[in-house]
Specification:
three-stranded antiparallel beta sheet; alpha+beta; Split barrel-like; 3 helices
Length: 95
């Protein structure tokens, strides 16, 4: 399993939570299976999956979403995030 430097994780999570929060929420709802989530923030990732904290009616829960393919580099993580978003958007039923 590839290990990512803390500054890489912080930078990608910061970007996703700052400018792509709706994308993270959509991934959480559709791919992560937490359709009742009202908010979500990306808090980490490794080569196998991304880690999200989802806000639910009764608090926060941890949601681990597997990458479509293992991620070995920072560029891979970016590509996998786009893939997950595209999959979530295609499967989204509008609710």
């Amino acid at each position: 399993m590839a290990e990512f430097e803390p500054d890489v994780i912080e930078a990608i999570c910061g970007y996703m939570n700052g400018t792509q929060a709706e994308s993270v929420l959509l991934i959480t709802k559709v791919i992560g299976g937490e359709s009742d989530a009202t908010a979500a923030r990306m808090v980490g990732f490794d080569s196998e999956s991304l880690l999200i904290l989802a806000t639910m009616a009764d608090g926060e829960i941890e949601v681990r979403v597997p990458w479509p393919h293992p991620a070995q580099t920072r560029s891979d993580v970016k590509d996998r995030l786009f893939l997950l978003f595209d999959q979530a958007l295609a499967a989204w039923d509008g609710k």
